[in-house]
């Protein structure tokens, strides 16, 4: 399967065990499994998404979060139209790593739209004390990336379809996000800048 077979190339980025594969399983097959094997290298799926009166064919690359495969996953950033950077909202370390993934993505494909995806929302809905990633901090990162932010649950399906429908609509609208970078290639958030807000927030 190559890029000519799809309209919109989407890459999933994030640390090991944040739930990238479960997110895809819910979106593609509307299923959730309590047992999931770690992605080795790259997995690819294809799906048609209908939005308004138009159809978008997604080619979705699920990349591993394992550091040993990072040089391989960088190849899949090329020509990506959208990137979903996943983090576990019950694990602050996974969110801290989202900064790294954003830098990696922008360094390799600066015109790619970014969507932050906080996973495992069902755990927080059942126990608010399990939340480890501050909502305001996540929204701040989304602002600086001029990206959208969603909190999802692959277990219940909450906001999963909404995330991909938003990607499809943005692709159809074909409006590029600009102004994420300093001249040295760093994200403005890391330099303490305050860009204007351009985001779609689905946190509740």
UniProtKB/TrEMBL annotation:
Glycoprotein among the record's keywords?
A: no
Q: What's an example of a GO molecular-function annotation for this chain? A: nucleotide binding
What is the top-level taxon of the source organism? Eukaryota
InterPro entries attached to this UniProt entry? P-loop_NTPase, Small_GTP-bd, Small_GTPase
Entry's Gene3D superfamilies?
P-loop containing nucleotide triphosphate hydrolases
Entry-linked PROSITE patterns:
RAB, RAS, RHO
Assigned keywords, A-Z: Nucleotide-binding
Asked if the keyword Transport belongs to this entry, the reply reads no
PANTHER family hit by this protein: PTHR47978
The family classification in the record reads:
Belongs to the small GTPase superfamily. Rab family.
Question: What is the protein named?
Answer: Ras-related protein Rab-24
**Species, as recorded:** Sinanodonta woodiana (Chinese pond mussel)
């Amino acid at each position: 399967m190559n890029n000519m077979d799809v309209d919109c190339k989407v890459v999933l980025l994030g640390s090991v065990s944040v739930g990238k594969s479960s997110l895809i399983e819910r979106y593609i097959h509307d299923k959730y499994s309590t047992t999931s094997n770690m992605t080795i290298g790259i997995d690819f799926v294809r799906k048609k998404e209908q939005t308004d009166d138009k159809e978008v064919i997604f080619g979705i690359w699920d990349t591993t979060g394992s550091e040993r495969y990072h040089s391989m996953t960088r190849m899949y950033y090329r020509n990506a139209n959208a990137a979903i950077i996943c983090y576990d909202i019950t694990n602050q370390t996974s969110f801290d790593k989202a900064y790294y993934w954003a830098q990696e993505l922008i360094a390799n494909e600066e015109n790619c739209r970014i969507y932050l995806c906080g996973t495992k929302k069902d755990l927080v809905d059942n126990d608010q004390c399990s939340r480890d990633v501050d909502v305001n901090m996540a929204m701040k990162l989304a602002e600086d990336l001029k990206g959208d932010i969603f909190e999802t649950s692959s277990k219940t399906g909450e906001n999963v379809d909404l995330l991909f429908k938003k990607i499809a609509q943005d692709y159809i609208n074909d409006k590029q996000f600009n102004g994420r970078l300093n001249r040295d290639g760093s994200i403005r958030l890391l330099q303490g800048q305050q860009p204007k807000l351009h985001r779609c927030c689905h946190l509740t």
